[in-house]
Design brief:
By secondary structure, this protein is mostly helical. The protein has twelve helices and no strands. The longest helix has 31 residues. Conversion of 1,4-dihydroxy-2-naphthoate (DHNA) to demethylmenaquinone (DMK).
């Protein structure tokens, strides 16, 4: 009988290690930040620079993939992952990679991301260097170091702010050369949807996490409280888009395209409510990732369409 190691091709093992279903959480903020930059470039002679967009996108993908690898490495080292664990890449416990190889690969990804960050800084501002280093440090400290962020109730906040708001603002800045309050404002729904991907993961893993000594937000709130909190946050994200589209200066009715994704968070809530084991809650976890993807892409598309029509 073939083992998991034998079943997967080499490429597939590395692909799973990066946890590809999570990577849109890096793509969406870059799209939203760049679309918002386009809005502020209307009427000027400046245009979006595709080279900066591409460098930013690849750097963000590498940092997130490396963060997932750090997670794989440290959770294995702390005895949290085994061959029955769900929602992980499984490179170490199922696909035969050594922990050292996973850690080495994560560091290589960080080096490449740092070089791309240096290119962005040369093209725009060297202030990006300390900001980029801070983001990379948070990515490592999320599961690494003596006090991992993922072991605290602040995981959702850190992931939402650093992967949502900070990436959107940087993507905006490298195109426009300045900071605008609107870029921070426009990022808030994405902060919420990305933070809720993290919360979905913590709801699924709360029993095992509690046994290991973690104090995540779902452990503190319990499953029922976590679902109430999650539902309230999703509603807030959609209401925020509606308010921005209808009442905020610079808003557009096209932002309401994001509302087309509303059936997805309903699926997240219902699937979590119906199921209570890590394996059966995987569809709910997947729906949370899809919610961020479809919400974010539609949101970015609405912003971009509004720029084509002069910011109507």
């Amino acid at each position: 009988m073939a083992t998991e190691f034998e079943k997967h091709s080499t490429f597939h093992k590395y692909w799973l290690l990066m946890r590809p279903h999570t990577l849109t959480a890096s793509v969406v903020p870059v799209l939203v930040g760049t679309a918002t930059a386009k809005l502020f470039l209307l009427g000027s002679e400046d245009h979006l620079r595709f080279s900066l967009f591409l460098a930013m996108l690849v750097a963000c993908l590498l940092i997130q993939a490396a963060t997932n690898m750090f997670n794989e490495y440290y959770d294995f080292k702390k005895g949290l992952d085994d061959h029955e664990s769900v929602g992980i890449g499984g490179a170490i416990v199922r696909n035969g990679m050594t922990p050292e190889h996973v850690l080495r690969l994560a560091l290589i990804f960080y080096v490449i991301a740092a070089l791309l960050g240096l290119y962005l800084a040369i093209q725009t501002s060297f202030w990006l260097i300390p900001v980029g280093l801070l983001c990379m440090a948070v990515g490592y400290l999320y599961t690494g170091g003596p006090f991992p962020i993922s072991w605290t109730p602040l995981g959702e906040l850190f992931s939402g702010v650093f992967m949502g708001m900070i990436i959107i603002v940087i993507a905006f800045y490298i195109q426009t050369g300045n900071l605008q309050n609107y870029a921070f404002w426009i990022s808030i729904p994405i902060v919420i949807t990305i933070g809720l991907i993290n919360m979905a993961n913590n709801i699924r893993d709360r029993v095992k996490d509690k046994q290991s000594g973690r104090r995540t937000l779902p452990i503190l709130l319990g499953k029922r409280g976590s679902l109430i909190f999650m539902a309230a946050c999703y509603i807030l994200a959609y209401l925020f888009v509606i308010y921005t589209a209808l009442f905020k200066d610079g808003g557009s009715l096209f932002y309401l395209l994001a509302l087309l994704s509303f059936p997805l968070p309903i699926k997240v809530y219902r699937r979590f409510k119906k199921n209570d084991t890590p394996q059966t809650m995987m569809p709910a976890m997947a729906a949370a990732g899809k919610t961020n993807t479809f919400f974010g892409v539609l949101y970015a598309l609405g912003i971009y369409i509004s720029t084509l029509l002069g910011g109507v």
